[in-house]
Design brief:
By secondary structure, the protein is of the alpha+beta class. It is built from 4 helices and 7 strands.
Length: 178
């Protein structure tokens, strides 16, 4: 049997196909857009969990313990589907919807489609209180995307800015709660 002979156009077609595949791979890698980010903060408070929950447990109580919040009215209280409008002391607002409320488990989860005054979108957050004797641990965690949906966001709308903004909200609120 004799060896195969390639036509003179076969190597050119193969090279073109490989170049196209590489370009497609490079394009898809750079065109992914934002990725889901997360933030979580926990603080220990020298008070029983039921006392801490009494302060933060109502969906409309954010104004009572977060230093940046002027008002936080919720149209249906602690009922899932309740819409909370958060007005910030420095200007700006957020609109959040209560997704899940668990009084006995001392936690609730809420969602904001866009971050309003924050550089985030598709923001979901949970705040919970866990007892540890005469102390409690409060955890506030969330997942979100940066507000800028395209590649190459400006510095104030990139992933780092989104994480820093949410972390700042959590740390200032928890520190004031303590």
């Amino acid at each position: 049997m004799r060896g195969l002979r390639m036509s003179s156009t076969a190597p050119g077609l193969l090279a073109a196909a490989m170049a196209s595949a590489l370009m497609l791979t490079a394009f898809s890698a750079s065109a992914h857009g934002p990725t889901r980010q997360k933030a979580s903060e926990t603080i220990e408070i020298a008070a029983p969990a039921d006392k801490v929950w009494a302060v933060i447990g109502n969906f409309d109580a954010l104004k009572d313990w977060h230093p940046a919040v002027a008002s936080s009215a919720a149209d249906k209280g602690n009922e899932p589907g309740s819409v909370r409008t958060v007005e910030l002391k420095g200007g700006g607002s957020l609109v959040e919807t209560l997704q899940k409320y668990d009084a006995s488990g001392m936690s609730y989860t809420y969602r904001a489609k866009d971050g309003g005054a924050l550089p985030v979108s598709n923001y979901t957050s949970t705040i919970s209180v866990r007892g540890d004797g005469d102390k409690s641990k409060v955890e506030w965690r969330g997942a979100f995307y940066r507000a800028f949906p395209n590649n190459d966001p400006p510095p104030d709308q990139n992933d780092e800015a989104a994480v820093n903004a949410i972390t700042g909200v959590y740390t200032s609120g928890l520190a004031n709660l303590k």
